[in-house]
Amino acid sequence: MPDLDFYKRKSGGVKTSGQAHKRQSDNVMNSTWWNDIGAKTAYIYDYYHDDEPLIFRDLHPEKSKTKTPIDIKFIVNSYNSENKDQVGYHIQFRPGQKCPLDYYEESLGKKYFSEFPIACYLDIQDEQGIYRKWLVTEPGNQLGLQFPTYYILPIDHVFQWIHNDTKYQMCGIGRSQSSYNQGTWVDYKIESPENQRKAILPMNEISATIFYDTRIVLSAPIDEPITWRCTKVEQISPKGINRLTFAQARWDQHKDYIEKDEEGNVIGMWCNYFDNNLTPSPSDEPVPDKHAEITYFGVKKELKIGGSYKKFNIAFYKGEEETPFEVGTWKYKIDGKDATPLLNILTNATSKDVEPNQVKLKFLGDDRFIGKILNISYDSHTGVHSEIDIPIIAI
Amino acid sequence: MDWTEQDKAFLQQFRNTVDYDGIKVKQKVKQALLDNKYILHVLNNKELEEAEAEPSDYFGINILPYYMVTPVQTDVQNYVTFQVNYASVPQWDKTKKYLELIFVVLCEQKNIIDKDTSLPRHDLLAALLQDQFNFSTICGHTIELVKDREIIVDNSYAARELTFQQYADNNLVKTRNGVSKLSNKSMLNV
Q1: pLDDT by residue (tens digit) across A275-294?
Q2: ipTM summary value
Q3: Interface test with chain B among A299, A312, A358, by most B beta carbons within 10 Å
């Protein structure tokens, strides 16, 4: 007859009957995991480890080197109804599943105080065998339950926006925002569109650049796409998720841009693309291992006619680590022609408050140069090149 | 419709025009404000101070040539806005007009006390504006403070409105090809 010692060994040393039952339930859940029709192997990762960042259907995570496989149960607990947003589903991990992403704590946990797996993307295979991208947006039934679940929503849009002359793109979820109005507002003399939408993105340094008044295009590729302006930012509901509300804005034919490929297919729709005569650069442009970067002092990337001196700085890098300054030559061009006669230039040799890796410029040209771009480049003697375009404006 | 460099140059000459007071006076006021380091300091834009910004960087952020504050106010900022109006011409002398230069100073209530003086910031900015502009000839003729009142904008901002008045020429000058002349000599005989 089994004795007390036998039961103590069987229960794994737990102190109470309740704990023993829980442990046994966990074991049963684990051992019968694949009996459940909703059990799948999904792939979990964050924004920075997404090697298919611009697609959310027909993915191939099994070939990925950055996505981590994880067992889940996919739980359908509600169904769609007409004219409402896509409903979310729940996922459940194996009992005792720890976070398999060694970068999560550093990039999300400590930084944005989120708990695994909030803000993670999941590639989940549907019943047709196609992998779709999902985002873990909230704890589902989590606290106080033996088998916690998490709420996921399918990614349905690649959001595109421009910040500081850099193009950003990120997979996220579009949601409607009920607004009981006719769609336009007449403000004494002018009629404007009136509508709202929401977006859900994982919280990170990239999505944090969408802030109040950021404009984006959320539209079909029509001649005058529908643009939106960010009017509400909620970054702790829950922690790790960036919820944004947008109000409908006006398409600016001077600044907004529909980007097409060589075959005429729309590959991007951007607001404020031509904000200051500069072409924005992609955020994921590859950078050589050994490179240099020219930066400017002050808050605005511009040079003023009749303005005071503006300081520029060059820094050298190997990878992400800064390396010592390399001697070289500064060059200044407007429309491809040498612009040195139009500038008063202060260097380390001529001014005490200019370091060897800096230069101070004052523009001497007249109003004819309003709207022109000053190209500042630096070529080091070891062949490292860097350049920056600065718009010229009038005060 | 063709657009040439000459057309662009024609438009650009309006930056230095003496014909239209709306631009002429605003350009002088803008430069005067940007040259006043006390006003820039009391505007208390920490981000610009830490970035070693030029005085001209304050224009468009804290110094505005219109009374309209956009975009969405997400951080504590203070503003000096200015407008140029004229609404009336004296009946007895149509070659003159009463030009008004109106400053509206807006200071966020959370940052209302200036640390250097313990004065309310909007009052201090108004005092600096009066010090700089009252009885000055910055705008060509002597301007005089004729109204100074505290106004309510909303719960967040303490505001002061200062109106300077100038007895100025009534748009007599017309500039063509860089040459400015009186446009209608018959008006001088009125």
Answers
A1: 777 788 887 766 777 889 99
A2: 0.75
A3: A299
